[in-house]
Amino acid sequence: MKQPPVVTEDPGVTDAAIRTVVLALLAVDGVISAVAGALLLPFYLGSVPFPISAAISGLVNLALVWAAVHWTDSARLAALPLLAWLVTVAALTLGGPGGDIIFGGPGVMAYSVLLFLALGAAPPALFLWRHNRPR
Fold first, then answer.
1. In angstroms, rounded to a whole number, what is the distance separating the alpha carbons of residues 12 and 20?
2. What is the pLDDT of residues 78-89, one digit of tens each?
3. Most buried residue among 7, 20, 27, 81 by CB atoms closer than 10 A?
4. Where are the membrane-spanning stretches (predicted)?
5. Rounded to whole angstroms, how far apart are CA atoms 42 and 121?
């Protein structure tokens, strides 16, 4: 006697609600990456500014975008963590109450926002560009 075929669910197919939640959490992680990287940017090694958090933020953003690429086929949705990071950095450039600023300082720290943008956004942007170009 023949056995009936076993029906298994394709593991590559997931519910749209799960995809939405995962992409939203990746966008929130992009915001957290921007805030943590910006607040740790004025780290000093002795008396020399050592903005290692900009490079770490770029690597975290790369990992977030890489994860988003695996959850969606849309390039726009895959860029959601990077876009959330950029919007957060733009919001952090505005002055806070009492004129407090996050980016700025003497010497090379006056250009910290440019360094933070270059090192934080370049790796995931390059990854998205290489991933989405026609083959």
1. 15
2. 999 999 999 999
3. 81
4. 21-44, 50-69, 76-96, 108-129
5. 18
